[in-house]
Write a structure and sequence with these properties.
By secondary structure, the chain is an alpha+beta fold. The chain has 28 helices and 30 strands. Among the domains are: 188 residues, Immunoglobulin-like; 131 residues, Zincin-like fold, CATH 1.25.50.10. 41% of the residues lie in helices and 21% in strands. Helix 4 packs across helix 6 and helix 10 runs antiparallel to helix 11. The radius of gyration is 28 Å and the shape is globular. The two termini are 16 Å apart. Bound molecules: (3S)-3-amino-4-(1H-indol-3-yl)butanoic acid and zinc ion.
């Protein structure tokens, strides 16, 4: 496959002034007629001189007819598109018309126009529009679209505002120039949950969430989240919605979470539909975040888009940063920050430490779909957070205002983005840009000394080589620190140190005693802090730090230290750690959600990552056994406090998904998970029996499965929910995720043999095949069974849905951490996949990167 390089970017030869599309829908024979008004791009002298060919992308299209200014074209398409030689192009603007036929019913890749349970829908990002018609399918070609849809289905939707409709047809007009990846069309027998929003300038916007009949009563939360997002973007970023209608459609077959098509967002139904009985607190929080994320793209992504796909973080990093701020405002900033850091470390730090490491702005790719990663999204958001921290809130807002003003209607780059900050603040961001161009997570070594009232912090940064990048020059790192007195008082409130050198020292004078440092407060930069810290100091910070993130981080450090010693030295759980946890558990002044997070032990994969980084070869089986032992020790040591918390955190009255109630349930659920280790499952069985919401039912069921029980509850769950696909996805996942290591592959295999294992549905596929990769000890079972199982399914899915197969293949990316036997077993599977004939570009790129 061809490698695409950022350095080889050239502007398009022709720009598009307007597009008219007409769809006559039929499952196997959809006709697409296009009329596209082109003009030579003034930025391309060859096009202006009339010597540039016009290249249109097009894949799996049957061309019926094409014409330029009414003259039929003789040119025949190749496998990836159609070239119209310069000689066949008029000197100035011209009209290109085409008629093609496509078969949405056989489109299993879920990219382009496809069908899901009788409904037509599209997914065009990144390069799906070329499967709909011939077009310059690149984000720097932006144009207004007019669309006519002909079909007997009752609901016919496209981007923009509806301009006409009648029996069997509808017409839509999107006046805002957009790239083809934001095009969308939906046709189906759908019903709407509707509402309205008045923008701050008085525009009345009709809001609709379109779902299959029967799902209307599960839309209220998503609608509420949408209205709050619209208001928040006005209040926080001054951004107002710009059409008369905002449509959201829920689809059951979808490769990712959701898509921000202009005025017509399309969502995986999992991230729209929610009721207390069917969705957990985490589901509600995720729906709120994803609704906000897609809505926020209207400005950061749609009005200002990316020049090319290397700039993906321009829209994704910024939009994730915006949705994280929104969720923090809606809920708790402290809790949200801790959750985001947990995700970042679990997914992005892991990616950065392995063969799939790449910069936030990659310099080359074979298949862009493989770069919708934690690095582009989550690290991309961290980079924005650092920028904001460095320039300050006020300058950040000024820079964003300038960005919207300067680049509205354009396809921009990271250089444009940074220039806006340079112009707004006068800062030179040359060194900061390394966060975009250099892969890898910096390690920040911290040492200190104290003499005569002066405390000095010595910082040293180092980033290990990543694929293709052996040299790592120092980056600018904002290190937020605070200092505490030995009595627990804060003597230095948070100050951001700006580290720019490989080694740098910072002094603090006028202190009366050697302080305790609180370093990287709020997780001010995505780095790994290395500092020799005593258990006493961590316990002190856990008890006294004024920064909630650092407080949690101190507890996290203690837990990791205890687990490392339990795994590597066979040590017993440290009593000091158990006491510290008990103190947090009993501290009613702390937010229950924060206490729940502190009670959550580092995951087995996190421990494998930690042990590997510390020079050990992690044994997933042993990590599992020792972690289980720690859970039991905590349960025994804190039985009284856990029981009291379990009772105290019961939430009376009907279920509400707000953060306060969810936090209490989270703490109660954490207590239940421990108590179940010592009460034989009694409390969990009772909770399962009385639960009137999915959160409490799943907490109970998970706790029971973790002690090898729960068969009766699983059966009753299935009996109740067998006709609800989204709920049954959870049932499938649970049995793999909570399986004992020896049962994991067998459980997964048995589930895939059921008639309701609809493996062509990405949610159902992920519910089992994704879950096996998330059960660390089960996945890395020494038999290699789970590795074979995953490889078998990737090979099976790839010809139908390469995108989803490629995404799930990343489970193999941590192979180098493990012992020679496991490495050999994984490499055998990677080789077997690589040798499969006809492998997709998506999966073959992932496998070859992982093989190195
Ligand atoms: N911008 C979207 C990313 C995306 C996608 C979504 C659904 C299916 C396939 C997709 N490929 C890329 C989602 C987002 O970040 O908002
Ligand atoms: Zn996005």
């Amino acid at each position: 496959p061809r490698t695409i390089r950022l350095a080889e970017y050239t502007p398009p030869s022709h720009l598009v002034e307007g597009v008219e599309l007409q769809f006559t829908l039929a499952p196997r024979t959809t006709r697409v007629r296009s009329a596209i008004r082109f003009r030579p791009n003034p930025a391309r002298p060859d096009a202006v001189a009339g010597t540039a060919d016009l290249r249109l992308d097009g894949e799996a299209l049957t061309l019926i007819r094409a014409a330029i200014d009414g003259t039929v074209l003789a040119a025949a398409p190749d496998a990836t598109g159609l070239t119209i030689p310069a000689a066949a192009l008029p000197a100035g603007p011209f009209l290109f018309e085409a008629e093609v036929e496509i078969a949405p019913e056989t489109n299993t890749a879920l990219e382009g126009l496809y069908m899901s349970k009788g409904m037509y829908c599209t997914q065009c990002e990144a390069e799906g529009f070329r499967k709909i018609t011939f077009y310059p399918d690149r984000p720097d070609v932006m144009a207004p679209f007019k669309v006519r849809i002909e079909s007997d289905l009752p609901v016919l939707l496209s981007n923009g505002d509806a301009v006409g409709q009648g029996p069997g047809w509808a017409e839509w007009h999107d006046p805002w120039p957009k790239p083809a990846y934001l095009f969308a069309l939906v046709a189906g027998d759908l019903v709407a949950h509707s509402d309205r929003f008045t923008t701050r300038s008085g525009r009345e916007v009709a809001l609709n969430i379109w779902v299959r009949r029967g799902d209307e009563d599960r839309c209220a939360y998503a609608m509420d989240a949408l209205k709050r997002s619209m208001k928040w973007d006005e209040d926080t970023y001054g951004r107002e919605y710009d059409l008369d209608v905002f449509n959201i459609v829920a689809v059951d077959d979808f490769n990712m979470g959701a898509m921000e098509n202009k005025g017509l967002n399309i969502f995986n139904s999992k991230y729209v539909l929610a009721s207390p009985e069917t969705a957990t607190d985490d589901d509600f929080a995720r729906i709120e975040a994803i609704i906000a994320h897609e809505y926020f793209h209207n400005w950061t992504g749609n009005r200002i888009t990316c020049r090319d796909w290397f700039q993906l973080c321009l829209k994704e990093g910024l939009t994730v940063f915006r949705d994280q701020s929104f969720s923090g405002d809606m809920r708790s900033h402290a809790v949200k920050r801790i959750e985001d850091v947990l995700t970042l470390r679990a997914r992005q730090f892991r990616e950065d430490a392995g063969p799939l490491a790449h910069p936030v702005r990659p310099a080359s790719y074979q298949e862009i779909n493989n770069f919708y990663t934690a690095t582009v999204y989550e690290k991309g958001a961290e980079v924005i957070g650092m920028l904001k921290r460095l320039v300050g809130d006020e300058a950040y807002r000024r820079a964003l205002d300038l960005y919207f003003e300067r680049h509205d209607g354009e396809a921009a780059t990271i250089e444009d983005w940074l220039k806006v900050f340079e112009d707004a603040t006068g800062r030179d961001l040359t060194q900061f840009k390394r966060w975009y161009t250099d892969a890898g997570t910096p390690h920040l070594r911290v040492t200190d000394d104290y003499r005569d009232g002066t405390y000095v912090l010595h910082l040293e940064q180092q980033t290990l080589p990543t694929p293709g990048q052996p040299e790592k020059p120092p980056r600018v790192i904002p290190v937020a620190v605070g200092l505490l007195n030995p009595n627990g008082d804060e003597v230095l409130p948070t100050r951001v140190l700006e580290m720019t050198e490989a080694r740098q020292s910072f002094s603090f004078e006028g202190l009366s005693a050697r302080p305790v440092p609180s370093i990287l407060r709020g997780f001010s930069a995505p780095v790994i802090v290395e500092r020799e810290t005593s258990a006493e100091e961590r316990a002190f910070l856990l008890a006294h730090d004024t920064d909630p993130f650092s407080r949690w981080e101190a507890g996290r450090g203690l837990a990791k230290e205890v687990l490392v010693r339990m795994v590597t030295e066979g040590a017993d759980p440290a009593p000091g750690f158990l006491e510290g946890l008990g103190a947090i558990l009993r501290d009613d002044s702390l937010d229950p959600a924060f206490r729940a997070l502190t009670l959550r032990l580092p995951s087995e994969d996190d421990m494998a990552q930690t042990l590997h980084a510390a020079g050990h070869v992690p044994d997933p089986t042993r990590i599992h056994v020792r972690r289980e032992a720690l859970i039991e020790a905590i349960a025994r040591h804190l039985a009284g406090a856990l029981g009291a918390t379990y009772s105290a955190m019961s939430v009376p009255g009907p279920y509400t998904p707000d953060a306060g109630a969810a936090g209490k349930r989270a703490l109660r659920g954490a207590a239940l998970a421990y108590l179940t280790r010592i009460d034989g499952g009694a409390a969990a069985k009772v909770q399962y029996g009385v639960a009137d919401n999915m959160t409490e039912a799943l907490q109970a069921l998970s706790a029971l499965l973790d002690i090898g029980q729960g068969a009766a509850e699983l059966a009753s769950f299935e009996a109740r929910w067998r006709d609800d696909a989204l709920v049954m996805d959870k049932w499938f996942t649970l049995q793999v995720l909570h399986a004992a290591p020896d049962d994991c592959a067998a459980n997964a295999r048995a589930l895939t043999e059921r008639s309701d294992f609809d493996w062509k549905n990405p949610n159902r596929f992920r519910s089992v095949i994704g879950a096996i990769a998330a059960n660390a000890a089960g996945f890395h079972h020494p038999s290699g069974d789970s590795y074979r199982f995953l490889a078998d399914w990737l090979i099976r899915l790839d010809p139908l849905n390469p995108q989803t197969a490629a995404r799930l293949s990343a489970a193999f990316d941590s192979w180098a951490r493990y012992d020679a036997d496991r490495q050999g077993l994984i490499r055998d599977q990677l080789a077997r996949i690589a040798a499969t004939p006809g492998l997709s570009r998506d999966l073959s790129e992932m496998i070859s990167r992982m093989r190195g």
